[in-house]
Amino acid sequence: MPVHFSNVLLNNQAMVLVDDSDQLIGFGFIDRSSSSLEACFVDPCFIGEGHGKCLVRALEAQAIDAGLNALSLSASLNAVVFYQGLGYTLGNFSPWDHPAGFTIDAYAMYKSLV
């Protein structure tokens, strides 16, 4: 994670999931200016337990409360099926430039919230 990424999470009112012992499970946020789901991440130790689905649903509710009608996101190849299962539509292949200076193969995805 980039050094100042915690500031990005704080400045964007990120949603953070922790377990009973305050261990980080996952996080994500909505970029209201671009109507996009950003930095949605679940620790690999917790994948398959429903935390990702819970996180995305909560972020979608936050987006609706903010008056957004749709969300877009950039999904890494291993996350495409996950987002499709949550109703997101696959868009074009669109490599994503990580702030740390590397590129990830990804697809644009979209979902109407209304």
Explain how this protein is built.
The protein has 114 residues and is an alpha+beta fold. The protein has one domain (5-112): Gcn5-related N-acetyltransferase (GNAT) (Aminopeptidase). Helices cover 25% and strands 37% of the residues. The chain has helices at 5-11, 51-65, 80-85, and strands at residues 15-18, 24-31, 36-42, 70-76, 89-93, 96-97, 103-104, 106-112. The strands form three sheets. The chain has a three-stranded antiparallel beta sheet with strand order 1-2-3, with helices on one face. The chain has a three-stranded antiparallel beta sheet with strand order 4-8-5. The longest helix has 15 residues, at 51-65. The protein is globular.
What are the salient characteristics of this protein?
three-stranded antiparallel beta sheet; GNAT_dom; 114 residues; Acyl_CoA_acyltransferase; N-acetyltransferase domain-containing protein; Aminopeptidase; globular
In short:
The chain has 3 helices and 8 strands, in the order H-E-E-E-H-E-H-E-E-E-E. It has 114 residues and is an alpha+beta fold. A hairpin with a 5-residue loop joins strand 1 and strand 2.
The share of residues in extended strands comes to: 35-45%
The main β sheet shows up as: 3 strands, antiparallel
Radius of gyration: 14 Å
Identify low-pLDDT runs: none
User: Strand-and-helix sequence, N→C?
Assistant: HEEEHEHEEEE
Organism: Shewanella colwelliana
Protein name: N-acetyltransferase domain-containing protein
Pfam families: Acetyltransf_10
